[in-house]
């Protein structure tokens, strides 16, 4: 009988710490891997659009001893995974994209301070790009699809078609709207014309499926109560055939509404008072919590223990809903990047610099 209470206690402890327990970073120059590991977790917590990334290589580490601690500067090489940021999986468990799927890499510089045994990422900046250019890919794999800009008209048409198809599925309780387009690929297919292959995230709305309503008028459910769907679609122009397959992710709050109880009206996500102008780049998810404030939080009831390190639930849900029907999912941080690739979701600089009066495009 004795071991049982111990086991129960243990599982209780595990449940309270869904996020990984990170070893504290020291000021020992050999602790580069530990520092990189901590940095990677911080990037994963703050990167809230597109796809999750994983550490591929530690390019260089520098540690500078200062009064009471040290400063780390890390150069990290990351690779994009197949997991959308709304996927509840830990980034470590996500698969890296293969080269023929148009792999994406990010070269990041991360600054971290260690003081009194506490480590804190103070800043990071990444350069996100396709691992191989189109010219390089043509030589390696002439038939591989190429990535299209996320605002490509034909590509977005295929996404709209896929969304309509998804919304016809009678299994769904509500209609869904587009939250974000992750990537769009295209290639010519013999006798089928052009093929468009898209990946995108859908967000559950308050509109009951079957109601006669314009989809654009449907408001999303609160971030903690909405299902998300991560979908892959393919569309071929010759026969106008669309196919779509989606994975559904459950909301964090699955408490059923009581009899007669209305879906809650959710507070808008808080922004900490700064962030880029909402229209920079056109129609990306609204910026939120990129400032120095607490990590992104949907303001509507994640589990109470989710503060800082106890991650998992506050994030992993992706950005809060987009009040506009997104046309291409360009993230607002593009205005701060030099030559962002329009086909990719970059890792945005953190914290975001003060908005410029004239955000630079392309
Ligand atoms: C990554 O960026 C750093 C700093 O910008 C640069 O020195 C380094 O050469 C880059 N590495 C790669 C592989 O692009
Ligand atoms: C896509 O976005 C780029 C950069 O903002 C813009 O120059 C281009 O006209 C847009 N294309 C379409 C089809 O909207
Ligand atoms: C409808 O949705 C369910 C659950 O997500 C899925 O299993 C099923 O394949 C979908 N049906 C069609 C026709 O797409
Ligand atoms: C879940 O949603 C219901 C309905 O809005 C709300 O009453 C309840 O407090 C929420 N639970 C949590 C843990 O946020």
Automatic annotation (TrEMBL):
Location within or outside the cell: Secreted
Region annotation (Disordered) ranges: 253-338, 343-362
Residue span, Cystatin fetuin-A-type domain: 139-253
InterPro entries: Cystatin_dom, Cystatin_Fetuin_A, Cystatin_sf, Kininogen_Fetuin_HRG
GO cellular component term of the entry, any: extracellular matrix
Signal peptide: 1-18
Keywords: Disulfide bond, Glycoprotein, Repeat, Secreted, Signal
Keyword Secreted on entry: yes
Biased composition (Pro residues): 275-297
MF GO annotations: cysteine-type endopeptidase inhibitor activity
Pfam families: Cystatin
Gene3D superfamilies: 3.10.450.10
Key word Signal present: yes
Primary subcellular site in the record, as a coarse category: secreted
Biased composition (Basic and acidic residues): 304-315
Protein name in the entry: Alpha-2-HS-glycoprotein-like
Organism: Parambassis ranga (Indian glassy fish)
């Amino acid at each position: 009988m004795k071991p049982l209470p111990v086991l129960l206690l243990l599982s209780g402890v595990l449940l309270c710490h869904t996020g990984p327990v990170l070893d504290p970073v020291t000021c020992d120059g050999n602790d580069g891997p530990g520092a990189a590991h901590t940095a990677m977790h911080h990037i994963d917590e703050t990167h809230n659009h597109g796809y999750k990334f994983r550490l591929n290589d530690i390019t260089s580490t520098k540690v500078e001893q200062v009064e009471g601690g040290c400063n780390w500067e890390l150069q990290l090489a990351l690779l994009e995974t197949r997991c959308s940021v709304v996927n509840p999986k830990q980034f470590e468990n996500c698969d890296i994209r293969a080269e023929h799927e148009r792999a994406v890499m990010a070269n990041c510089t991360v600054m971290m301070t260690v003081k009194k045994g506490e480590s804190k990422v103070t800043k990071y900046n990444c350069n996100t790009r396709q691992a191989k250019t189109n010219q390089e890919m043509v030589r390696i794999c002439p038939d591989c699809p190429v990535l299209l800009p996320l605002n490509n008209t034909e590509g977005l048409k295929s996404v709209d078609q896929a969304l309509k198809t998804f919304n016809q599925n009678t299994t769904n309780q509500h209609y869904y709207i587009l939250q974000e387009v992750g990537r769009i690929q295209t290639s010519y297919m013999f006798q089928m014309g052009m093929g468009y292959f898209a990946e995108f995230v859908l967000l559950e709305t308050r509109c009951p499926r079957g109601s006669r309503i314009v989809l654009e008028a449907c408001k999303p459910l609160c971030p903690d109560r909405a299902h998300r769907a991560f979908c892959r679609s393919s569309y071929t122009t010759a026969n106008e055939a669309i196919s779509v397959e989606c994975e559904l992710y459950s909301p964090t709050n699955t408490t059923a509404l009581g009899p007669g109880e209305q879906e809650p009206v959710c507070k808008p996500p808080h922004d900490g008072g700064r962030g880029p102008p909402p229209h920079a780049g056109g129609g990306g998810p609204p910026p939120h919590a990129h400032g120095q404030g607490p990590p992104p939080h949907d303001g509507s009831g994640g589990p109470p223990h989710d503060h800082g390190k106890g991650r998992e639930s506050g994030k992993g849900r992706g950005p809060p809903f987009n009040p506009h029907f997104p046309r291409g999912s360009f993230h607002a941080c593009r205005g701060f990047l030099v030559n962002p690739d329009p086909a990719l979701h970059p890792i945005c600089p953190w914290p975001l610099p003060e908005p410029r009066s004239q955000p630079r495009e392309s």
